[in-house]
Each structure stands twice: as C-alpha cells, then as structure tokens.
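Question (not urgent): is this output format expected?
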Amino acid sequence: MGDACDALPGPAGLDFEGWTCPLPLRDVPSIVMGHGGGGAMSGELIEHLFLPAYGAAAAAELGDSAVLTVGSDTRLAFSTDSFVVKPMFFPGGSIGDLAVNGTVNDLAMSGATPLFLSTAFILAEGTELSVLGRIARAVGRAAEAAGVRLVTGDTKVVERASGDGVYLNTSGIGVVPAGIDIHARRARPGDAVLVSGDLGVHGVAVMSCREGLEFGTTVESDTAPLHGLVAAMLTTGTDVHVLRDPTRGGVSASLNEIARASEVGIELVERLLPVPPAVRDACSLLGLDPLQVANEGKLIAIVPATDADRVLAAMRAHPLGRSACRIGSCVPDHAGMVVARTGLGGSRVIGLPIGEQLPRIC
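Got this back:
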C-alpha cells in the first residue's frame, strides 16, 4: 500500500492479540467499543442515558444534523461529529479530510448547502508536529474543495496514556433551501431506494491498511463531499423524501433507522447491491457483512418511484454518482424491518448492527 499506511505491521500475518471485540454483551456496566459503533448499542446509550439526563433540554428529533428555523423563514442545518480513525492516514485519505467531508455530508443529507465549519483537535502528548501538520493541511485542502470556511476552533493536549495520536471534532452550519423537507420519517410504501455507488469501500480501505492485508488491488477510501451531488438531485425538482450517508453501521444501520422512523418495510434485491469484488472478498475473509461496513462518500436516497429514473440520471451525470443504482423499495409489509431478496428466491433479515464490526473506522 506504499506510504498511504502509516507505521503498520507487515502483511506476513494478522496480530489477533491486538484486536478488540466491537460487539460485546449488551448488559454491561461500563462503556465498551460497541457503544460507539452507530448500531443498537449506540441507540440504547442515547435513549436510556443521554436523553433522560438531558430532560427537557433535549431536541425532539435526533439525526445527523438538526434543521433550525431562524427568524421567519431562514432554516439552518447544524451538525457536529468526532473522528478517531486508526490509522490516521489510509489509502485515499486521512483523518483530516474525513472530518471535513463527514460533517459536510451530514449537513448535505438535510439538503443544506454547507457554509461554515469549526475544528477542535485533541492531541496526545508526543504526537509529532510533522504528523499534525499533514492532518491540518488535509483539513484545509478538503475545506477549500468543499467550498466551506473554517471559522473557529480549539486545541487540547492530553497525557500520553490518555489518548492516541490525534482526535478531531468538526461542527458545521449550512442553509436549507426553501421547500426542501428531507427527513428519515418521510419514506413511504412504493418509494425507490437508491445508492450513489459502490458500498463498503471506506471500511475495507482502513481495515486493510490497519492489518496489512493485501487483496490483489489497493482499496481506497471513498471519502468525498456529497453536497454537490445532492444539489444535482434536488435540481430535478423531485421531492426527495430521505437522504442518508451510511457511515458507522453502514447501509444496514441507515436503512433500519429509516424503516423504524417511517414505519415502513424496506426490501432490497441482493443481486443489485453494488459491492465491488475487492470489498466482497475482504469481507468474506474477515467474516464481515458488507452492508454493515462504513462508507464515507456514498449516499442513500429514498424518492418516489415515479421520479427514480430522473434522479438516477442526475446522479449518474455527477462525478460522485456515476455508479448510482436502485437497490430496492419501501413496502407496506414488515414495517420497521429491512429484508433482502436472495438469488435463490428467499429472503433474509438485514438487522440493525449491535455495535460496529470494525472499531475506529471513522
């Protein structure tokens, strides 16, 4: 993988002793890795600890970004996210551009045009300034490419034993155009489920770099800002019901959240899922489900079936949506569940992940 992998063990073998279980038993008295995976354990932490603790101060709706009305008609999208990816440099990107693109995309999934970001660095004592400089330059380049300004920030340093390299938090603000109402609760029976391209690429890129795996070809992260693609989709005039970037927990977590919020069933066609061979092979080797692997430059769209072809055409005309395709539909049956039709004519349940198969992916 060349210089893209930062101080990694060689490909001679896997260091299983260094692995941690991201899917522990759920009845635990302390925080475990699974609580940060974006799956069922994360949801339980929010529902049973944070929301009761926040009380009346908590927002009524939870999502990757909040849409806030300012004045009589101005709507702002606001989002925050923290990034703890390991290794910090991987094929196709780094924690720096990942942090910018991740927050830009959270804003874009509400239809917003991202405008401003904050950056907060938590640095472990002993981190080399040259490493921090590479990350900072990646942040700057990604922000410039996305057309957003870095307007405020913070830096903290923790003792060597308290941290691991660089952790990065970004918050963002964007403007939501009038007439746009994109929300996980708006999926309807009969809607088409679209994806913008190949699935599972980011998670496998990071994991291959982390463990020194070789798959015959370099798998590069798909990290990218998606607001331009979203704008192209909205230009069609389609009433886009739901947008989601399937990061932690992958497509499985995102679709399960949508199905539950909208009280619809979602039915996928397994043969239509765009999982590239390298990702499929890596997941087979590691015993992973590609639908639960993180993506950082892909989106899921749920639109009226009558508009699906028009939206797909707009997506395919954009550089980040050339491989966009339809993978399924929303159905009135099995409300709140996601199932996939297999090549043998049967079906299987696509459940919400408990934790995360691959910790420290984003």
